[in-house]
């Protein structure tokens, strides 16, 4: 095994410099990075630990939350304000890994990993998530930032410094991930739904995101648009499920066949309907 150099810089500029001058990988919680290095999927010459940076707090402003680098899942679960404003995301986080994993792992690591099965990544698509990049100070919408499995738009000297998500007040929500053993496994398929209705039970807004059925988390705003103004019913969700089956083309892998995943696209939406009308 080659010698790996380890750095723990204290400033954004230092991280940026070391990253741009070396074959380097950033280390946040390390729960993805270490697994990939052990499996020799990643073989960096340099590791840059981001935990040398001064710790910033999670902040709430103008109906959004800003989650800075090095914030762990555990810290979000324990944050009362975050629980009050983002109960769906807390539910999603509680299904990630184990308490030991959540104690170290970070949402930013999950996003940088860009796995279509990434649970936190899915919530970025539902909650209008943005990524803040340093040192350029660029803010990028999640759907522009993630371009494929493991692929994100970062230049050599850049890294993710924070993320922000929008509060979705007055929405009902549903989240489910199907896996062989719930939390400790990569999901076969996952779904997240946010639904807002008016007093007559008509859809004011709906957001649906699927994980593990394509190269990235998938959301189709044109299908969501078609549902607006219609009354919530099982028939409507079935119809919507059919539409998703037309546009989602999952693959077969070691975890499940494409056919199974496609069927689940519709079935999970119908299940969501029953949970959302409770
Ligand atoms: C047993 C086990 C169970 C797991 N279960 C789940 C699960 O249920 N759901 C799920 O989604 N994931 C799961 N994971 C994967 C992992 O825990 C999560 O993706 C986690 O959020 C990664 O965060 P991290 O801070 O540990 O990332 P790290 O491992 O530190 O980093 C992940 C990747 O992002 C890069 N990176 C880190 N920080 C930055 C940054 N600031 N800017 C740019 N790039 C950066 C790293 O170089 C690396 O390539 C599991 C992992 C294990 C080992």
TrEMBL record:
One of its GO terms (molecular function) is oxidoreductase activity. SUPFAM superfamilies: CO dehydrogenase flavoprotein C-terminal domain-like (SSF55447), FAD-binding/transporter-associated domain-like (SSF56176). Residues 1-170 form the FAD-binding PCMH-type domain. Pfam families: CO_deh_flav_C (PF03450), FAD_binding_5 (PF00941). SMART domains: CO_deh_flav_C. It comes from the Bacteria. This is Aerobic-type carbon monoxide dehydrogenase, middle subunit CoxM/CutM-like protein. The lineage of its organism: Bacteria, Thermotogati, Thermotogota, Thermotogae, Petrotogales.
């Amino acid at each position: 095994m080659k010698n790996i150099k380890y750095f723990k810089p204290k400033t954004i500029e230092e991280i940026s410099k070391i990253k741009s001058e070396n074959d380097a990988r950033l280390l946040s919680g390390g729960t993805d990075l270490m697994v990939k290095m052990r499996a020799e999927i990643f073989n960096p010459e340099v590791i840059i630990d981001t935990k040398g940076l001064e710790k910033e707090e999670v902040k709430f402003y103008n109906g959004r939350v800003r989650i800075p680098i090095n914030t762990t899942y555990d810290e979000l679960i324990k944050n009362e304000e975050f629980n009050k404003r983002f109960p769906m995301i807390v539910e999603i986080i509680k299904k990630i890994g184990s308490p030991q994993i959540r104690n170290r792992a970070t949402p930013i690591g999950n996003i940088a990993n860009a796995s279509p099965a990434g649970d936190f990544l899915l919530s970025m698509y539902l909650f209008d998530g943005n990524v803040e990049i340093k040192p350029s100070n660029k803010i990028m919408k999640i759907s522009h930032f993630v371009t494929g499995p493991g692929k994100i738009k970062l230049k050599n000297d850049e890294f993710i410094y924070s993320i922000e998500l929008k509060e979705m007040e007055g929405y009902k929500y549903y989240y489910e991930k199907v896996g062989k053993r719930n939390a400790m496994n990569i999901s076969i398929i996952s779904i997240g739904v946010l639904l807002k209705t008016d007093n007559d039970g008509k859809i004011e807004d709906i957001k649906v995101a699927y994980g593990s059925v394509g190269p990235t988390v998938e959301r189709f705003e044109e299908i969501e648009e078609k549902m607006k103004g219609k009354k919530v019913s099982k028939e409507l969700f079935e119809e919507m499920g059919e539409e998703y089956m037309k546009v989602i083309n999952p693959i077969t892998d070691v975890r499940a066949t494409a056919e199974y995943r496609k069927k689940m696209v519709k079935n999970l939406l119908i299940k969501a309907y029953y949970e959302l009308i409770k």
